[in-house]
Amino acid sequence: MTSKTDEFPGTPLREADFSEGKILYRHDEMNGQYAWDTGVGIGSYLAALKTGVILGSHCRTCRKTVVPPRTVCEWCFRPMDSYVPLLDTGTVNTFSLCYVTWDVKRIKEPEIPAVIEIDGASPLHGIMHKLGEVEPDEVQIGMRVQAVWKPEEDREGSITDILYFKPIKEG
Amino acid sequence: MSLLERDPNAPDAWLGEMPITSRYTAGVAGERFFRAIKDEGKILGSPCDRCGITYVPARQFCERCMDELDETVDVGTVGEVHTFTLLFENLDGTQREEPEVVAFISLGDGGLVHKLDEIHLDDLEIGLLVEAVFKPEAERQGSILDITYFRPVPS
Amino acid sequence: MSERVAIIGVGWAGYRPVTPEVSYKELTYEAAVKAYADAGIDPRRDVDSFVTVAEDFIEGTSIFDEYVPDQLGAVLKPVHTICGDGLHGLATAHMLIRTGQAHLVVVEGHSKASNILTLPEVTAYAQDPILNRPLGLNTDFIAGMEMNRYMYETGATPEECAAVVVKNRRNAMRNPLAPYGADLTVDEVLSGPPLAWPLGRHEVAKHADGAIVMVLASEERARSLSDQPVWILGVGWCNGAPSLESREWGDVPYIRKAAVMAYRQAGISQPHLAIDVIEVDDTYAYKELQHLEAINYCRAGEAGMLTEEGFTAPDGELPVNVSGGSLGMGNLLDASGLARALEIVLQLRGEAGLRQLKEAKVGLAQSWRGAPTTSGAVAIMGS
Amino acid sequence: MGMRKVAVVGAGMTKFMRRAQETGKELSWQATRMALESCEMTLDDIEAVCLGTAPDAFDSVHLKGEYLSDGAGAWGKPFMRSYVGGGTGVFAPIQGWYHVASGLFDTVLVVCEEKMSSYYPHAQGAFLTIFDHTTERPLKPNLLWIFALEMNRYMQTYGISKEDIARVAVKNKRNAADHPCALLGDADITVEDVLNSELLAWPVNRLDVSPVSDGAVTIVLAAEHVAKRITDKPVWIQGVGWSLDTAYWTNRDLAYPRYVEYAARMAYEMAGIKEPRKQIHIVEPYDPFDYKECHHLEGLLLADRGQAPQLVADGVSLRDGDMPVCPSGGLLGVGNPIAAAGLMKVAEIFWQLRGEAGARQVPGQPKRGLAQAWGDLMQVGTVVIMGTNP
Known about the structure:
With 383 residues, chain C is α/β, with parallel strands linked by helices. Chain C has 15 helices and eleven strands. In chain C, 36% of the residues lie in helices and 19% in strands. Chain C has a nine-stranded mixed sheet. In chain C, strands 5-6 form a two-stranded antiparallel sheet. Helix content of chain D is 35%, strand content 18%. In chain D, the strands form two sheets. Chain D has a nine-stranded mixed sheet with strand order 3-2-4-7-1-8-11-10-9. A two-stranded antiparallel ribbon of chain D has the order 5-6. Classes of the chains: A mainly beta (171), B mainly beta (155), C alpha/beta (383), D alpha/beta (390).
């Protein structure tokens, strides 16, 4: 069918068609504000972060410790048995050096997002966070890192109570 | 359902937003429709010959048979109030003291949703003839707001 | 191919104006656990497919689909979202089972309406961005204009619409699931503040939080798992014109077509004789009347009169919204259709407690996706 | 018993554009009208409509399925929108399949649309809100992060180089030079061009990524007894599969897309396929990023783990190779209006199996093809297998 068709529909525009007023358009913006109930698992996670603890939960059936904590194990669908305070150290599972903002504007010093497997959780169980106090070209998968916390009085029960993870200096 | 308990210090809610910022083209048919309002003070419709319907506002396709509608017709600027409401509520849900009068004004086989003004509420009824009041030509931007409102046709 | 499909398990959590002690995941989990226990199944082992009804801007999350599987026991299973009402979800499960490729399918819908701080502004973003949104109108204007035209065309009165509120909120007092039970009079409803005249503020269902999960099964599986399967006899759904400019303002032809589709499957030609209990959408009071007429419960313009005469009351000839409807139970957003269907299931199983009807063998549930949509569905169920 | 057989009988699509003048409704209508004309059907012949479209944020309309419904041909018809994030474009035909296979409908339109340019200033903004609102969004993650994190993990696990992966982008953009709807076709692009393009989020460079686009695609499905009246070359849906992994994406290994494997196994079983590498002749895996094509070929069991990049190097996945991969030009070349891009892959298999793909036609009269999409937080796989035999 495509072999029989010469002209496909669609009218591509240039950005200049907007700026030069060649076409009609309008802007709008949604006021979408939310207050998501934190509930049992995530509410407790946030409360623990405020005290400088990364909280996980344990499923006895699957013998797994996961983070963030949830009330049900997604694998066996049994209720989780207990909370487990985890360490604030871990291992870089993967990372990126990001040189652009979300709207693709360039930044000089890269942000370094990473998945960090948290010590005390089951293997491959981590959280997303950022790395700091490290040269971009020194970051490696498998690197050992530790959380850098906000001062206690500034913490508000948020994942940003951890500023970033920094490398653990060996020896 | 849970064996785990909620930390008594847990925050109730996490606050956040959906930052939706948008830019919409008027579209192929919208371009024709709004240019006619802007440049000529005309309201255009699109007849579908197959279905015997004249859509207002002008559109690119017939929703009933999917035929392309490339002709437009001027349907005038006077229509009939098909239905209306007195809206006592603002966009954010708060109560208004004085209502906005909003109507669907029949034009061709379609029509426009717009506000009514220069009207006594006692005169307001379904079937009332109203006419479009346009902004001065120099201020029009090719928008539905180039029509300021509809008002009763002077008798 | 399995011709017949049954609901063999139901579970719910809520419904309350607020549910601050649980997250949406935990709320859904509670409903899911109850539904699986009711059906006697293990979701990890037994369920072939999962369907959720949800919308991104309601959740405050883009691609909300991501967050569905864990609390349903659906990880690494076929899961998909329908951006529709709960009855669309039910219809989807029905189709999946009829293909013969799935035998047990779970449908989930939930509302955390209390978590949306700016719901009217989010809803306004469903209006046409070029033609309608620039006017800056609260979306309830559409309901006001519909109600006005509906009354003009059918002769229905404001008192008849208010009688729906009185009935449904009174019904809700006999329903422990319903948060908005009240003993009101028609005068009290009509003397409330105006919203979008002729629509008054007391004629609009308030929102509620809640979650509903249902387990559907093929005939073979239903017979082996359940003592009292509730069979889906017919299901229909339909859309009308989405544009405000080309729709009908006084009528809901899409509900009419959805009902015709469902009746055809169920082999029902005279609904008022064949059906014992009805739950229709009553997001706005006039909608109950309009919807009853569209499903051919009665002729156009008669539903209000029948309501005033008690025909639709729990002790009337054909009870409507015995549960309290959305006016009594709360508007659960896209889970509302599942709430209507849940009441039918409970009535057909004889588990509706104080509000149990005597002869409930066939029931009908109907939904509408709310303003500004022209989207609705009908499901007919039998014991 | 015996399942009802379902065929694709028509297809149509718009150009894929960086920014289209058409509204989303108009794009949907254009693709739909073209699909109906391609099989000489009218809207009256259609019994139900299925719509696929990704986040409402893109078109910037709440309940956008309802908004788009008239353009999709749903006036007065049973209509539903299905949604599995980026996997939607290959899920919508699955939705169409179960509509017909259920016996409720004989003819169904499947329409996929995306108008990403409506999210302004940049469509990537829509992705800010895909992360968990409480535990992740406060870190202000952008979309590139999650791809870069996955790509890095994939490369590290199997010792794959950026050059290995860049060849995929080159292949697809070259293939796209033959696609009349393509946004980024380039017959002369080289591996060096990809490697030297702007570094966005290591290891992702600009030319590793598919472009934000506007567009729509429609296909027409029919039950067996109807399909044979409509066309003498129906293309049959032989198998479908889909699977959704946990939302806790940082609690699993990103090196391998097991959800794609689960979806593929479901589809292979339904299609009676025991040896996919021999029995699948053309593949259109989802390629929003070049490494994703490799990732998905492995999940589809069409390459050993970590070995997919070798398929390009060896020429196997070129258009004239033993197993052409993305002969359309894929998302990297044709463009990525999310849901429409997925359905474009299904349309491509349809055209290829009918021998109607023009300059893109793969040699040797292929008999069976597979289209796959991926979505969510590295989480969902959707698979459709189509063939010239029922």
